[in-house]
Design goal:
InterPro entries: Homeodomain-like_sf, HTH-type_TetR-like_transc_reg, HTH_TetR, Tet_transcr_reg_TetR-rel_C_sf. The chain is mainly α. It has ten helices and no strands. Helix 1 packs across helix 6 and helix 5 packs antiparallel against helix 10.
Length: 199
C-alpha cells in the first residue's frame, strides 16, 4: 500500500471514529459536517472526498459496526457443537457487544439505523451477505437435523435475535430495570423453547 493510500485510510478511520463520538455525545441532531470535521481535525474537503456527505459517512459507520457485530456472532458460533449451545453463544455475544461497544450499539439500534435499513435494506443485506450466509448456514444445518424448528431461516433469526435486540434497546435507552448479565443467562433457555425442533 502506498503512503498516499495509507494516509487515505487513516483519514477514513479518523472520520468514522469522530462521527461515532459526535453521535454518542450529541445524537443525530448534533451530527453535522461542522461537528465531525471539528472532532476529527479532518478538512471538509476530505470528508466529502471519502464519503460524499454526512449520510455517506453514517452509512459507512453503520456498515462498519454491523460487520463487527456479525463477526463477533460468527466467532461465538465457531466454538459451539449444538443448536442449543449456539443460541446461548449468540445471545451472550450480542449482549457482550452491546456492553463493550455502547456507542456503536446506540447507533446500530437507533432510529437512524432503522430508517436506513428500511430504505436500503436490500443493499445493506447484500453488502453483508458474506457474513450473514454462515449464520443462515448454521441455522439451516440444525433445521435439517431436526434440532431447530422447520421454519424459514429469517423467521428463526427473528425468534432468536428479536428478544435480544429488544432487551438491548431497552438497556441502551437508559431504562435501569434491565440487567444484561441476567438477560444473558435467562434469555437463551426461553429462546430455545421457542425454536427447538423435534429432533
Amino acid at each position: 500500500m502506498s503512503p498516499k493510500q495509507q494516509r487515505g485510510e487513516a483519514t477514513v478511520e479518523q472520520l468514522l471514529d469522530a462521527a461515532l463520538r459526535v453521535y454518542a455525545e450529541s445524537g443525530e441532531q448534533g451530527l453535522t459536517v461542522a461537528a465531525v470535521t471539528k472532532a476529527s481535525g479532518v478538512s471538509l474537503g476530505s470528508l466529502y472526498h471519502h464519503f460524499g456527505s454526512v449520510d455517506g459517512l453514517m452509512n459507512a459507520l453503520l456498515t462498519r459496526w454491523l460487520g463487527r457485530l456479525l463477526g463477533e456472532l460468527l466467532a461465538a458460533l465457531e466454538h459451539t457443537r449444538t443448536a442449543h449451545t449456539g443460541i446461548r453463544a449468540l445471545v451472550r455475544a450480542y449482549l457482550n457487544f452491546v456492553q463493550e461497544h455502547r456507542d456503536a450499539a446506540l447507533l446500530l439500534h437507533s432510529a437512524y439505523a432503522d430508517r436506513h435499513s428500511m430504505a436500503d435494506g436490500r443493499r445493506l443485506r447484500d453488502a453483508q451477505e458474506a457474513r450473514v450466509s454462515p449464520l443462515a448456514q448454521w441455522a439451516g444445518r440444525y433445521v435439517d437435523a431436526g434440532d431447530l424448528a422447520p421454519l424459514p431461516v429469517p423467521l428463526l433469526e427473528s425468534l432468536i435475535l428479536g428478544p435480544v435486540v429488544a432487551v438491548a434497546r431497552r438497556w441502551l435507552s437508559g431504562v435501569d430495570d434491565v440487567d444484561l448479565d441476567q438477560a444473558a443467562v435467562l434469555l437463551p433457555e426461553r429462546i430455545w423453547r421457542a425454536v427447538a425442533g423435534d429432533g
